[in-house]
Each structure stands twice: as C-alpha cells, then as structure tokens.
C-alpha cells in the first residue's frame, strides 16, 4: 500500500462526500466504479474486485449517513414512525443480498450495477420539473413497510448504494412530502450499511486471494480513507448547494453516472 494509493482513495472520498452534500445523493454509485478501477490498478485478485468495491462503498454509508441523519432530525424531517420499521427489513434484506453477492461472479455484479445505475441516471435526466405537491398519505401496513425495506436493502446490497434511489420515490408515491421522504431515506442508509457490512464480512470471510487489511470483502484502508474525507466534505457540498442551480448539476451528475455504468458494463462483459 503506497501513498499515491492512499491519496487516490482520499480524493475519491472527498469527491463522493462533496457530491453527496451538493446533490443530496448518496456516494455509493460513484464510489463503486472508481474503487473497481483503483483495485484493478492495484492488481487485486480479479474475481474479488467488484465484490470488494461494493462492500467497501456500502460500508462507508455507516459514517456518511450518521451526520446526515443528525441534520435531518434537527429539522424535524425524519419520520421516525416509518424509518425503524423499514430499517429492520432493510437490515435483513441487505444481509441476504450480501450472501447472494458472495455466491455470484463479479461479471453478474458488475452488470447488475450497470443496469440499476444506468436506469437511475436516465430517471435523473428525464425527471420532471414539477413542484412537489402534497398528497394524502396512503402508507401500507407495518409488515408491508418492513417488506419494502427488505426489498430496498436487498437491491442496495448488490450495488453498494444507500437505497435513496428507491426509498425516496417509494415514500413520495405513498404520500410523504419530498423533504420527509428524503430525510427518512437518509435514516434508512444506516441500517442498510450495517446489514451490508455484516453480510459482506460473513460472505467474504473465507474467500481466497483477499489482500492484507481486508475484513471479509470490506477493504479497511479504502473504508477509512473514503469515509473520513467524505464526512468532512459533505457539509461543504451542502453549503455550495444553496448557491448553485441544482437541476443543472444533477443532469451533469446523471451523465457521469451513465459513463460509470458503461464502464461497469464493460468491466463485467470483459471478465465474462
């Protein structure tokens, strides 16, 4: 492990945290492709690279979500009657998804990531500019909320994201105001990351070819470097967000995500 390698990881965490604060979008979708590239350059075992990138990106959300939850809670925006119920389901779903990921080849994980991130980027590009409107809440029962959390956690564990790309539309569709949907989604990031951490540690505990300082599929040096700088830069991005045009930036970010999805598709097909 060299200093240029550490600096690359710190720069990646800084960019991820800044964009998360600027756009209100989790950094996992950005981290996974770049970690995949960096791990490839470091000549990590090819069959483990995508697994480690997803596991490490997902675990960073433990740290970034904590500060986000505090900020949203202070504004009274988190729906604590919803977040714990969905969170329990998310822990179970994310753990199960991590076990499945451990049994899949990197090819399938890379292609699954490319598909979901590509779709999310297209939705971002094509999103309507209609203002948020109030709807009558029509929340499902607690068991169904838990099931929704499990499904969101399951998919999130396969792409290394905090689930906001699914949680926010789901809650808004069920009648929550957008500010409450975003805040409650942020609270969901922590249980998703916790379940993913446990799941990927268990799934990768006996994997052959893991580098030094790996805990299961989680690569600890990358986790520390990315999480530290990401947490520091997220408030900076949030401050800039109040002085720039968010819609234009989201379109630029969506185009970047499309490019990263293309890279992951290429990576997956090349290793097939």
From TrEMBL:
InterPro entries: TM_pro_TauE-like. The keyword Transmembrane applies. The chain crosses the membrane at residues 9-36, 48-69, 81-101, 107-126, 147-170, 182-203, 215-236, 248-266. It is found in: Membrane. Its main location: membrane. GO terms for cellular component: membrane. Signal peptide: none annotated. Coiled coil: none annotated. It comes from mine drainage metagenome. It is a multi-pass membrane protein. Keywords: Membrane, Transmembrane, Transmembrane helix. The keyword Phosphoprotein does not apply. This is Sulfite exporter TauE/SafE.
């Amino acid at each position: 492990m060299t200093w240029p390698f550490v600096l690359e990881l710190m720069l990646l965490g800084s960019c991820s945290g800044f964009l998360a604060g600027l756009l209100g979008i989790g950094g996992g979708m950005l981290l996974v492709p770049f970690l995949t590239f960096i791990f490839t350059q470091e000549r990590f075992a090819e069959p483990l690279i995508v697994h480690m990138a997803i596991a490490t990106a997902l675990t960073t959300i433990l740290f970034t979500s904590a500060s986000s939850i505090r900020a949203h809670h202070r504004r009274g925006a988190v729906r604590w009657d919803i977040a714990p119920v969905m969170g329990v389901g998310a822990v179970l779903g994310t753990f199960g998804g991590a076990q499945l990921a451990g049994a899949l080849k990197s090819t399938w994980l890379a292609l699954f990531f490319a598909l979901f991130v590509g779709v999310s980027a297209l939705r971002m590009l094509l999103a309507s500019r209609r203002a948020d409107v109030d709807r009558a809440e029509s929340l499902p029962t607690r068991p169904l909320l838990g099931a929704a959390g499990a499904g969101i956690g399951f998919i999130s564990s396969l792409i290394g994201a905090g689930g906001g790309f699914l949680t926010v539309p789901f809650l808004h569709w069920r009648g929550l105001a957008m500010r409450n949907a975003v805040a409650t989604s942020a609270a969901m990031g922590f249980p998703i990351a916790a379940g993913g951490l446990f799941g990927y540690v268990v799934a990768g505990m006996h994997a052959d070819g893991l580098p030094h300082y790996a805990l299961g599929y989680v690569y600890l040096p990358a986790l520390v470097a990315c999480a530290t700088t990401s947490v520091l830069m997220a408030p900076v991005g949030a401050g800039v967000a109040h002085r720039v045009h968010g819609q234009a930036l989201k379109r630029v970010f969506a185009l970047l995500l499309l490019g990263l999805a293309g890279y992951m598709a290429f990576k997956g097909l090349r290793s097939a």
